[in-house]
Amino acid sequence: EGEEEEEEDERKHQKLLEAISSLGAKRKKTLGERSEAAVQMSEFTVTAEGERDRVDLSDLIGSMEKTPGVTSRTKKQLKNLQKDNKTIESPLSRQETDRIQRDVAFQKAATEVTKWKGVIKQNQRAEQLIFPLNRELTLRWRRRFFSLLHANKQPIHDPILTPAEEASMKAMSLEEAKIRRAELQKARALQSYYEAKARRARKIKSKAYHKVHNKAKRKEFLKRSMRLELNKIEMARMQERMSLKHQNSGKWAKSKVIMGKYDLVARKAMQQQLEVNKDLTQKIVTSLNAEEEEEEEEGGDAEVLPDFVNDAEQAVDPSNPWMRGKLSEDPTEKDMIVDLTAEEAPRAAEEEEEEEEEVKEPEEEVLLREFDERRKQRQAQEAEAQITVEEEDDDEEEEEEDKAADEEEAELSVFTSLFREKAEAAADVTDTSAQLEEGLTRIRTLEDVELLSVPQEEAAADEAPLPPPPAENPPPVPQKREAAKPKKRKRAIELKEVLTKEPKVIQVPLAPTVEDAEDADEPLDQRGLIKEAFAGDDVVADFLKDKRKQEDAGKPKVVDLTLPGWGEWGGTGLKPSRSKRRRFRTKAVPPPPRKDQRLPSVIISENRNSAVRLHQVNSLPFPFQNHSQFESTIRSPLGRTWNTERTVKKNIKPKVVTQMGAIIEPMAREELLKDKRPAAGRGGRGGRGGRGGRGGRGGRGGRGVDSQRRHIRDKRAEK
Amino acid sequence: MKVKVLSRNPDDYVRETKYDIQRVPRNYDPTLHPFEVCREYTQALNSTKLDRVFAKPFLASLDGHRDGVNCMAKHTSSLSTLLSGSCDGEVKVWNLTKHECVRTLQAHEGFVRGMVVRHCGTSFFTVGDDKTIKQWKMEAPGYGEEEEPLNTILGKTVFTGLDHHQKDAVFATCGQQVDIWDEQRSSPIRSFTWGVDSFSAVRFNPVETELLASCASDRSIVLYDMRESAPLKKVIMTMRSNTLCWNPMEAYHFTCSNEDYNLYTYDMRYLDRPMTVHMDHVSAVLDVDYSPTGKEFVSASFDKTVRIFPKENGHSREVYHTKRMQHVICVKWSADNKYILSGSDEMNIRLWKANASEKLGVLAPREKQASNYSQKLKEKFQHHPQIRRIARHRHLPKNIFHESKELRIMKEARRRKERNVRKHSKPGAVPVVSEKEKHVVTVVK
Predict the structure, then answer these.
(1) In chain B, what are the helix, strand and coil shares in percent, each to the nearest 5?
(2) Do B292 and A664 touch (CB under 8 A)?
(3) N or C: which end of chain B has fewer CB within 10 A?
(4) Region annotation Disordered: residue ranges (chain A) (predicted)?
(5) pLDDT in tens, A211-226
(6) For residue range B100-142, what is the model confidence (pLDDT) as tens digits?
(7) Counting runs of H as helices and runs of E as strands, what totals does chain B give?
(8) Which of A116, A402, A615 sits opposite B1 (nearest CB)?
């Protein structure tokens, strides 16, 4: 009974549940009731009727023993299972599973991404990267793109109009049509106007008018036809000159030349041809051309200039009078010119001119001249002692004279050296005299100065006949002669010096002259000049004094802090006691020895220069690890003044190179594949991969730093 | 008198053809060329000065929009084409060489939020405030045709960002969740959510093309793999990131622009700590874009400036501003590494040089060599105080100058306070937190 009641209860309960569930928003499909044996069966639970409520694993396994196909291994496993009494853990919460999934996925992605590490590092280290990295690929892509565009007749460049669009544009341009019509109208109007004008002119009955009119027309026509003709002739001339057709250089002509010896006809033919050539190549000067030229000239300048103005200047030698021979002589001028050697008379006038010119001389020249005069002065002094005989005749003989001088020079060198000392002793005296002389020599340009050595000798020669002048006041006469000499050179340049004129030979009596030893060797001369220029300065003494002053300044000073009165009597005439003075006097520690202590001719300044300090680095910059590294990089120059072309090229290679107008695509997966290839293949790639070109700076350092920096960077990248 | 005349072998100095370069004999004896350091230093100093003299970065301003420029997109195959979308839903296509607008279309109602050109360059996608994704043809419609999108997808929520896959016909949008779309289907093939957020930007990794990252409004940056069903990881920072950009040459590096005036470069694998913190802006950073060489990036900020940072430096190498440029909302670095484009609030797009003093156009080989040499010299002497001073000198608008000064003072004060606290508390009680760690709140797995 009890059981039955229970069943009843269950049924009611079931019904209740169904009723409740049917109350929900969505009606569920009601289960069909069964009134048979399977009353207790529901979808979800299996209720087993009978004494044993539970089904054991062992019951199920029991049948396994009988089945032959089951392996022993499975049996064993199952037995183990039977022994195990643990319950299976409930499944993880959704959050947990999600987290695990995410974690796994992230690990996967991270390992995938880490594959790029090699490529990235390599690119960071590379001395030069050329973008786009993968040129062939982009090029191929671009080609495909453009071919597609072509195929579709799309515009490639910017005019953004397809052919079809352009055609339509053409078809619909109303504006254009209007403009064209207006143009046509205008042309028609013009035509009718001209026609009317011509008709009117024809109707004029005045004979004079027609006469003039016709004449002008005829002239015009003639001119035009003539020009045409001339053009034709000119063209023929040009062709002839280019082709040389009639110049007997062809095959035919050569054969004729051979035949000409024996055959009169051949000779004639040849001559004829030459004549043709002559005719053709002759330049025709016509009235027409002349007229034009005249017009042109008149247009240019009214004054008629002489022809020689247009002649090209001979670039041979400006001083050569032979090259100037073209100038027709002006008799009046010719009279005015007096031969240089013919002395005195024109000199006054000329000197005036020259003095005017002198004003223009730059300061340097004045200085140079001063030096030069002093030198001359000394020569004069030397001349006192040293008298040699020298002959002067002609320009041509000067060379011989030079030779002789060279020979003599050797003999005289001993004497001259002796006398130079003497001359230096008398330097003061010469200085004063030199000042007096100022402005008397005539030197025009630097070239003149260079050339001075030649006239110098001449001057010396001129001076010779005179009695040896005392150093205190040089005689005026030799000065004048000296002055005259450069003038001679100048004369030679002058245009008016005409070729017809015979150079007169001066007869100078044989006289003792000064042999100049200094002229021969220039550098010694230069040194002498400098010595003279800085005669007053005692540089060495000044320097020593300077140095001593610097040393003194560097020495630490004794600081005396004694105050009178404190702890003893004070007042006028009272000195602090010795013990007190000793106590308050502080002696500084002697500084380290100066760097220039053992270098007598050097001052090394040891105090810091604030102006320079502004430009100096005061702390070691980041990638460097010690001072020597940094200094070595700074010390090695990069430029082409110090390095060979190849090294410079390597030095100034920019780190990143991009190509103009090239799109740089993001890194493609092919790069990764390239990286996986063996290292040997990688070395060949231009510009990339760091190992290509290192160093090359010829042991000038900097290499170590580079690698150091790289190392540091790598470390950072790994972090 | 005997005159000695110089005589040389003509082989030493006569060229064989006129196309050979002239041989210039040189004597490299170092005693003949003394003072090399001083001379090169002077050259470096001069070229640094000239660099500043010739620094004229501003090239052109493209005007025509009738509202602020909200987004831009580079054309993938044409350097001279730029697309820009404004806050009134208008999209303009620009020809950069001619500085003119080629095409205008009304794409959306409300803002154009995002825009991207398909990898082939024949069409582009836009998303807007009207909950639609539209695909447009790159060419303008023919005569008489109407301006119509190729495709329109109507979404359930507003889309705020968009990016296209590097190679496949797949794109990603973000809004309330990150969706991955196939171009052929009208419903997303995958959508990622992680808590309830709204996302402001999503970007595909250009190298490892299946990866994405997005910035969410809960101050986090989330990483995804397109092939997985769940996101990978997220990092939560102290303030919200606005946009991010992957390095196109380094697969695992990306940089995000943050509201806290900084930019952060992360290694994707180690999100707990940014690699570099890039400071200098004085207001929220709104956009960032890498140079195609992956060496530098450019950032646009609310403080009306555009700055260029080397990717491993904490401070910018260049700052661009003009009197009339307002808050810069978007910025792009052109695909040839030469130009920078910035779109700002006051409806203009500006074209800048990426290197302010660079000479544009073709350089003669000697010119190129000279510029390379001076570049190297500047590099060599960059640590010298005078050169550094001149090279770093930039004129800044007054407010930015004072703002940055103020920020510096504030930072210094904070540091001082922290130091004092540390000094007066038990050793180890106040740990030293580095600047990099300071901005990361947590990493969520």
Answers:
(1) 15, 35, 45
(2) yes
(3) N
(4) 313-411, 424-491, 564-602, 668-719
(5) 998 999 999 999 999 9
(6) 999 999 999 999 999 999 999 999 999 999 999 999 999 999 8
(7) 5, 29
(8) A402
Q: A158: which chain B residues are within 8 Å (Cβ-Cβ)?
A: 80, 95, 97-98
Could you please report the per-residue DSSP string of A243-275? H-TTSS-SHHHHHHHHHHTT-HHHHHHHHHHHH
Task: Give the residue among B192, B319, B202 at the shortest CA–CA distance from B254.
Answer: B202
Q: Are strands A129-131 and A656-658 parallel, antiparallel or unpaired?
A: parallel
Tokens, residue B237:
């920072």
Model confidence band, residue A556 (pLDDT cutoffs 50, 70, 90)? confident
Nearest to A233 by CA among A290, A275, A284, A293: A284
Residue A304 has pLDDT above 60, yes or no: no
- What does the block give as tokens for B63? 């005007």
CB within 8 Å: B336 and A142: no
A586 interface with B at CB cutoff 8 Å: no
Residue A429 reports pLDDT greater than 60: no
Task: Say how far apart CA B165 and CA A32 lie, in whole Å.
Answer: 55
Hey, are the CB atoms on B206 and A666 less than 8 Å from each other?
yes
From the CB of residue A637, how many other CB atoms can be counted at a distance below 10 Å?
22
DSSP state of B209: T
What tokens does A306 get?
A: 């002489």
Strand, coil or helix: B393: coil
Angstrom distance (rounded) from CA A713 to CA A163: 57
Minimal CA–CA distance to B301: which of B280, B325, B284? B284
Average pLDDT over residues A229-252: 85
Cross-chain Cβ contact A106/B95 below 8 Å:
no
In chain A, what percentage of residues exceed pLDDT 90? 17
A465 and A388 in contact (C-beta within 8 Å)? no
Overall average pLDDT of the A675-679 stretch: 57
Q: Is B317 on the interface with A (CB under 8 A)?
A: no
* Number of residues that this document lists for chain B: 445
DSSP B424: T
- Predicted local confidence at residue B150, as pLDDT: 94
> Which of B131, B36, B151 is CA-nearest to residue B89?
B131
* Mean pLDDT confidence for A506-535: 62
Give the A window 111-170 contacts with B, CB below 8 Å: 112-114, 116, 120, 123, 129, 131, 142, 145, 154, 158, 160, 165, 168
Rg (CA), chain B: 27
User: What's the mean pLDDT in A358-364?
Assistant: 53
**pLDDT score of A577:** 86
The type of residue at A213 is H
Q: Pick A308 or A541 by higher pLDDT.
A: A541
Number of H helices and number of E strands within chain A?
A: 29, 6
- The CATH classification of domain B68-139+148-283, taken from the options 2.130.10.10, 3.60.20.10, 3.10.20.30, 3.30.365.10: 2.130.10.10
- Integer angstrom CA distances of residue B319 from A668, B55, B143, B256: 31, 11, 44, 18
Interface mutation target, options A95, A96, A103, A120, chain B, most CBs of B under 10 Å: A120
Query: Is B33 within 8 Å of chain A by CB?
Result: yes
Domain map (residue ranges) of chain B: 10-54+365-392, 68-139+148-283
- A342 Cβ contact list (under 8 Å, min separation 6): A504
Is residue A339 within 8 Å of residue A347, measured between CB atoms? no
Q: Kindly give the pairing relationship between strand B178-182 and strand B170-174.
A: antiparallel
Contacts of A356 by beta carbon, 8 Å cutoff, 6+ apart? none
**Amino acid (1-letter code) at residue A101:** Q
Using CB atoms and an 8 Å cut-off, which of residues 181-200 of chain B contact chain A? none
Q: Is the distance from CB of B217 to CB of B199 less than 8 angstroms? A: yes
CA-closest candidate to residue A119, choices A669, A680, A699, A715: A669
